[in-house]
Amino acid sequence: MNISVVIPLLNEEESLPELENWIRSVMEKNGFSYEIIMVDDGSSDGSWSVIQNLNKINPNVKGIRFRRNYGKSAALNEGFEATQGDVVITMDADLQDSPDEIPGLYSMITKEGYDLVSGWKKKRYDPITKTVPTKLFNWATRKMSGISLNDFNCGLKAYRSDVVKSIEVYGEMHRYVPVIAKWAGFSNIGEKVVQHQERKYGTTKFGLSRFINGFLDLLTIFFVGKFGKRPMHFFGPLGTLLFFLGFFAAFFIGAEKLYYLSLGEKARLVTDNPYFYISLICMVLGSQLFLTGFVAELISRNSVDRNAYQIAERINL
After folding, report:
1. What is the per-residue pLDDT for 207?
2. Can you name the CATH fold of 3-227?
3. Backbone phi, psi, residue 155, to 5°
């Protein structure tokens, strides 16, 4: 099978028939073998009934239904597991992503050798309350991840099949699939300018809170990707530095008192010196950070996926 199209959705019953017809038209025009996997993320409208009816009309339409709303990341992850195509295309169900982009994305994967191609909505039809935070979010993600993409959060993306089979998308990490793919060893990541449509039906499912959550998720994915297998490399140096700063500060305070006493001068109590308590706090925090790293290292060593690395190729094995 050439292409699997994964579509996470929530309350999009009005747009689904038009979207399916549009995708089918593009696939037939280009002679692609395909499947459309619609993942209903706990819709409260008639979206699931629409998917069932579409399946009767077009057997290439497949459906997965969650019992409740788990979020876009869970929907994508479940859809990825079900795919059978050589190339996996993801798009939103609100008709703002154009299926006409599918042939170009497919070509970039199969002919140009990209592992992942992310869409770039260079011209957007969104309110300024959405576009400005998105620009800041994309800038921060570029700086922290080292991936030169202009639009990380675009729902229209294309992947080689082994990419989606090798990664796990959870929480709110759907925004960072390119980052997750890079940490998994798929570094050939490209970008394609894609058409952005105005929303035709319904309302957006995302609020401003997603940008706060998105930044926190970026910190999470950066930390897990860099230190997830070796947490002591993060906590150990910080803990050691704080402990020795506190230790030497306390040593200096004690030595200072002994010096004054040796001169026969009256020295104030060590406990009257505010820096003594600061040094104690540094030593306590340093010890806690070091022990945190030690415990995290023990947990990591006993994790079932401690050796979850990706093998690219084998010869004579």
Report:
1. 55
2. Spore Coat Polysaccharide Biosynthesis Protein SpsA; Chain A (3.90.550)
3. -70, -20
